[in-house]
């Protein structure tokens, strides 16, 4: 008998539990450790922050979902992982042992690395559903008294797509409300150029996103290091390509959303042999930690080296379909190890991303992630908006129904989605949340 534990019940952890379950032998036991009882679909947070989705649209009660599958679910959260002892301390003082562990703890949001950054400071965030709900409340207050907006991603950030997405969603929403003319917008990013995305660009993302920002009168500052934020003012250092200070900006704002740098969660940080200095889990080609080969990791908690040096540090994004491929490889490798065979399955680690702007969007595929690539494709159009709705339904359905959705089903769902929207053109013109 083997005890298999999945630590973290977000996108990666929940999918991992569902994919691992059918690979187990009768005598094995699967436990999922979450932090709270609710799953929420992070990629829909930008829609929450402008009221295009309500909280309940993207939340799932995990107690129910796990119980239906007879997966043991512990919602107390982990205090500390002891990989050398195959043991996890939980926050209620108890302890859980394992034979195999899959870490899927996502990121810790490093707001504290920039004074005044984050929902406890002066900027908003869409990284967690609680933050997105708070950002929506602030957006409602902003609508009564519009002013300048700053959106972007801080130094060390690795998740740039949602920053572009949010800037362009805000632009769409403000135009729909006919108050865009009262709102100067600035995009502030650690990226060396617009459309770098932590991937040194994909296809023509530089031109596509520059042109999108230009067309919508959104100014930008790249190579940006945010020095600090105070009420209504952001201090930003703009660097040259060789890392010198080109200019310091004092940017006024009435509303701001800045994505922070990520690091590994506290329960893992400093675990020798397991994590890198930022607390991300080091894995080999089979998603296994080289020091503790009974420990796997999937999702944002995995350490991936940056594509190359940049004047301001930027990380590499980990996106939904990439996470899914890590999960599939992990489940297959566990199946083999449990039956005395070696691990052989490798994740594709391809970056596939859909950035929705409400009335259009940009999509890209990078295969492999690091250039030069075999597939280096980007495109834009209204279809991306529909595809993003399909993406949300695909994953939400997977979590709710708890099974791998066959590709034909996904295709059918997307087609239905498109047909629904075509038959109701008002849906495209209206907020997505009303579809
Ligand atoms: C705003 C935003 C928008 C995004 N949009 C897209 C998109 O459109 N398309 C795309 O492909 N990707 C997108 N991503 C990237 C990625 O798909 C998501 O971040 C995804 O949620 C990552 O999954 P994960 O499982 O690694 O982390 P998470 O979903 O964050 O899950 C981690 C889980 O671990 C739990 N946890 C942490 N510490 C502990 C502990 N000590 N004990 C127990 N549990 C713990 C957390 O509570 C959380 O539930 C987006 C990311 C962000 C931040």
From TrEMBL:
It catalyses: n a quinone + n hydrogen sulfide + n H(+) = polysulfur(n-2) + n a quinol. It is a peripheral membrane protein. Residues 3-308 form the FAD/NAD(P)-binding domain. It is found in: Membrane. Its EC number is 1.8.5.4. Its main location: membrane. Catalyzes the oxidation of hydrogen sulfide, with the help of a quinone. Consecutive reaction cycles lead to the accumulation of a polysulfide product on the active site Cys residues; these products are released when they exceed a critical length, typically as cyclooctasulfur. PANTHER family: APOPTOSIS-INDUCING FACTOR 1, SULFIDE-QUINONE REDUCTASE. This is Sulfide-quinone reductase.
């Amino acid at each position: 008998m083997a005890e298999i534990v999945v630590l973290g019940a977000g996108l990666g952890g929940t999918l991992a539990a569902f994919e691992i379950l059918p690979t187990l032998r009768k005598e094995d036991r699967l436990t999922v450790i979450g932090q709270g009882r609710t799953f929420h679909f992070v990629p829909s947070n930008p829609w929450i922050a402008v009221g295009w989705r309500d909280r309940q649209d993207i939340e799932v009660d995990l107690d129910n979902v796990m119980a239906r599958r007879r997966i043991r679910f512990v919602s107390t959260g982990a205090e500390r992982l002891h990989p050398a002892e195959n043991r996890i301390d939980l926050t209620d003082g108890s302890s859980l042992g394992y034979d195999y562990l899959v870490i899927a703890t996502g990121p810790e949001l490093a707001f504290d690395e920039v004074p005044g950054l984050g929902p406890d400071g002066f900027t908003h965030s869409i990284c967690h559903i609680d933050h997105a709900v708070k950002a929506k409340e602030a957006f409602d207050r902003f609508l009564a008294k519009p002013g300048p907006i700053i959106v972007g991603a801080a130094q060390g950030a690795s998740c740039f797509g949602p920053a572009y997405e949010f800037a362009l969603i805000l632009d769409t929403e403000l135009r729909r409300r006919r108050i865009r003319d009262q709102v100067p917008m600035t995009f502030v990013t650690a990226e060396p150029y617009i459309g770098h995305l932590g991937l040194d660009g994909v296809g023509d993302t530089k031109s596509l996103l520059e042109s999108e920002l230009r067309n919508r009168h959104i100014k930008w500052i790249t190579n940006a290091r945010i020095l600090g934020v105070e009420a209504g003012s952001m201090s930003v250092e703009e660097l040259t390509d060789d890392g010198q200070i080109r200019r310091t900006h004092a940017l006024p704002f009435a509303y701001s959303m800045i994505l922070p740098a990520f690091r590994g969660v506290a329960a893992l940080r400093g675990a020798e042999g397991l994590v890198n200095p930022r607390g991300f889990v080091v894995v080999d080609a089979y998603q296994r930690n080289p020091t503790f080969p009974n420990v796997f990791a999937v999702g944002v908690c995995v350490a991936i080296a940056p594509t190359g040096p940049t004047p301001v540090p930027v990380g590499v994004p980990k996106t939904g379909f990439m996470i899914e491929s890590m999960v599939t490889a992990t489940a297959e490798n566990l199946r083999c190890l449990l039956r005395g065979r070696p691990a052989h399955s490798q994740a594709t680690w391809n970056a596939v991303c859909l950035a929705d702007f409400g009335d259009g969007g940009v999509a890209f595929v990078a295969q492999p992630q690091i250039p030069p690539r075999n597939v280096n494709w980007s495109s834009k159009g209204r279809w991306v908006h529909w595809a993003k709705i399909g993406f949300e339904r695909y994953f939400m359905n997977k979590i709710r129904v708890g099974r791998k959705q066959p590709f034909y089903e996904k295709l059918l769902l997307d087609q239905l989605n498109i047909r629904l929207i075509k038959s109701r053109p008002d849906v495209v013109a209206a907020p997505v949340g009303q579809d």
